[in-house]
Amino acid sequence: MTKTFRPIVYLCNSGTSDTEEYCRFALAQGQIPLSPLSLMAAVQDEELKTHISSVLLGKCNELWVFGEGKYTEIEIAKRRRMPIRYFPTALKEVFHA
């Protein structure tokens, strides 16, 4: 195994059934996927969820958003001027201004 740099990308999506597919997609793109969806399902407190998302996003190079929806992580990433990539359907990227 070669030791090349692989950026960490935070994967944001609304359905647990597709999470594995999104992780495989990110790995194939040379990224290290971080998908905290299962962790967030266990947290009931919205303020704590936001805090956890903020901390985890701070460890990542980019935010990748799969599917449609309003995600707290998008606002956090925008405030931090992090690169955000959108994949609304079928792992096809859509570019936002």
Structure description:
The chain is of the alpha/beta class and 97 residues long. It contains four helices and five strands, in the order βαβααβαββ. It is globular.
What is the percent of helical residues?
A: 25-40%
What is the highest CATH level, the class? Alpha Beta
Distance between the termini: 37 Å
- CATH architecture assignment name: 3-Layer(aba) Sandwich
How many strand units?
Answer: 5
- The SS-based structural class is alpha/beta
What characteristic shape results from the CA principal axes? globular
Most strands sheet: 5 strands, mixed
**How would you spell out the order of helices and strands?**
EHEHHEHEE
Please outline what is shown here.
With 97 residues, this protein is of the alpha/beta class. The protein is 37% helix and 23% strand. It has a single domain (8-94), classed as Rossmann fold.
List the helices and strands and how they pair.
Blueprint lengths: L7 E5 L6 H10 L3 E3 L2 H6 L3 H12 L4 E5 L5 H8 L4 E6 L2 E3 L3
Parallel strand pairs: 1-2, 1-3, 3-4
Antiparallel strand pairs: 4-5
Helix pairs in contact: 3-4
Note the main attributes of this structure:
97 residues, alpha/beta, Rossmann fold, five-stranded mixed sheet, 4 helices, 5 strands, 37% helix, 23% strand
